[in-house]
Amino acid sequence: MTLSKQEMLNNYCLETGKALNNDIEKQVMELFALSSQTTTIEEKINKIFDEFSEEFLNAIDTNTRIDLDFLVGNFSDSQIPVQPIDFESYLKCLGNNVVAHSINTSSPRFIGHMTSALPSFVRPLAKLMTAMNQNVVKIETAKALSFCEREALAMLHRLIYNFSDNFYSQHIQNNLSTLGILVSGGTVANITALWCARNAILGAKDGFLGIEKEGLAAALDFYGYKGAVIIGSELMHFSFDKAADLMGIGTQSLIRIPADSNNRVNIQALRQAVVECRAQNLLIIGIVGVAGTTDSGGVDSLFEIAEIAQEANVHFHVDAAWGGPLIFSEQHRHKLAGIERADSVTIDGHKQLYLPMGIGMVFLRDPYMATAIEKQASYTMRKGSFDLGKRALEGSRPGMALFLHAGLNLLGLKGYEFLIDEGIRKTEYMADRICTMPEFELLAEPDTNLLIYRYIPEQLRELVIKKQLTEIDNQLINQFNERLQKIQRQIGRTFISRTTKTTTSFSKEIPIIALRAVIANPLTTEEDIDAVLNDQIQIASEIVISNFQKIV
Ligand SMILES: *Cc1c(COP(=O)(O)O)cnc(C)c1O
Fold it and tell me: Residue 277 domain-assigned?
């Protein structure tokens, strides 16, 4: 009979008995002690990381070529080791199996994702944050960081809404006010915004205790609605599906309005939808404007949506998770005109504020709006306290505010303006390049720093120019681009993502597979952009059409 790994280890423990227990105590306590070992461990970790980034910078990466089945095989052990493993061996395993097969998100030629490159102050601050291990759920475990967080959020609130000095001195550190809520990302920010909107509109009244206490069915019944909806562009992020689901209205009650060819919501259709919902006695919880769609960077006409929302007296939420930081740019801020009329605004810190993963924010025009979601607990979150957890979806939460506060101070208005302007300038450069290259077709004029385009195989280029593509031709181009993007990702020298856009250029709606560039990395140069496009041309030249047509 052969013993399993676990059984062998268990036997071993039984035999060696007490000696081993003492050993464990020593090993565990060592892990908690501040020892000289920490520095050697850190040195080793730095080395692993440096090797990781260097591989990518030199584009000698081999790891993206490793297929996923292989990785799955590396992580198929469901048993926890009985004995602690020593750090050296564990680090080796981490380096070989995890770090080596991760994605270097700050590589200048990986311009297809929204995960930004990080400024150098992030790493040392991360160490400080983890070492301090504050929990901003409540004052008792965070103290100063709670106020630091409120200050950073107020700074961005001011950039959006630009209320008076008086307003900010009244609310910035007033425990009854909430100018913004720091969350883990845009998803939670969007959910929180609509949660506030829902609870505020279906609040307590005439003996009814409010939706918070009595639930959605009772609330709709009390207020006399047949149902409730959320309205926005068809290009809304899928976090709104999550919000509609959690809010109890169902994803079918998320009304998605068609967008035009520039990826902006059709205002006429939006207005019409509001009228129809009214006629059907449906409560509109919120109207959503998107400031930078995830797919293509399109910015809705926020000013016009604000008009519609105001006329209908409905909560206006702007999802500016991606495009919000345009507000730093004098040159591009006008694209967000109307954002200052929003009741709530989502901005992601871990996208265009160049901060690490795990920072999203929702800003509230009315500093008292978040009372609609406030909860108390007797052991903590007392009324009148500064405990940030009482008006938030999340409970325990790390001190990510350190990064936000640092970013706003260390980069400043001008620093962020530079980053935004540069990204858009380089995207325009790429759009110009694409327009002059016969190999490519630009699919939409960029609003921000996202660009969608596609490769056109040589034999179809004439038809594209003459606008004579058939649906079959289009399918062929779609499959070609899908293939191109997959091969490019596999080879791993450069990276562009892929998305699907619908077009009505044919008599019916058909999908177009698009290549999607996101240019936000300040380290990306024009030369890198050329290199990415040339890499695609090179790969395309090796896709043999006769082979390829078999796939079609
Ligand atoms: C990224 C994004 C989100 C979701 O944000 P997460 O931080 O990924 O949760 C929502 N809306 C838009 C427009 C986004 O770009």
Answer: yes
**Ligand 1 atom nearest to CA at 360:** 7
Pocket lining: 348 vs ligand 1, CB cutoff 6 Å = yes
Residue 506 lies in a domain: yes
Q: Does ligand 1 come within 6 angstroms of the Cβ of 360? A: yes
361 lines ligand 1 (CB under 6 A): no
Per-residue burial over 422-458, b if 16 or more Cβ lie within 10 Å, else e, is bbbebbeebbebbeebebbbbbbebbbbbbbbbbbbe
pTM: 0.91
Taking only the tens place, the pLDDT of each residue in 160-184 is: 999 999 999 999 999 999 999 999 9
What is the domain range of residue 65?
Answer: 15-104
Sheet arrangement for strand 316-319: 180-183, 360-364, 344-348, 316-319, 282-290, 227-233, 254-257
Q: How far is the CA of 292 from the centre of ligand 1 (A)?
A: 10
Structural domain includes residue 198 = no
Q: Does the C-beta of 237 come closer than 6 Å to ligand 1?
A: yes
Total domain count for the chain? 3
Is 329 within a domain?
yes
Residue 39 token pair: 């520095």
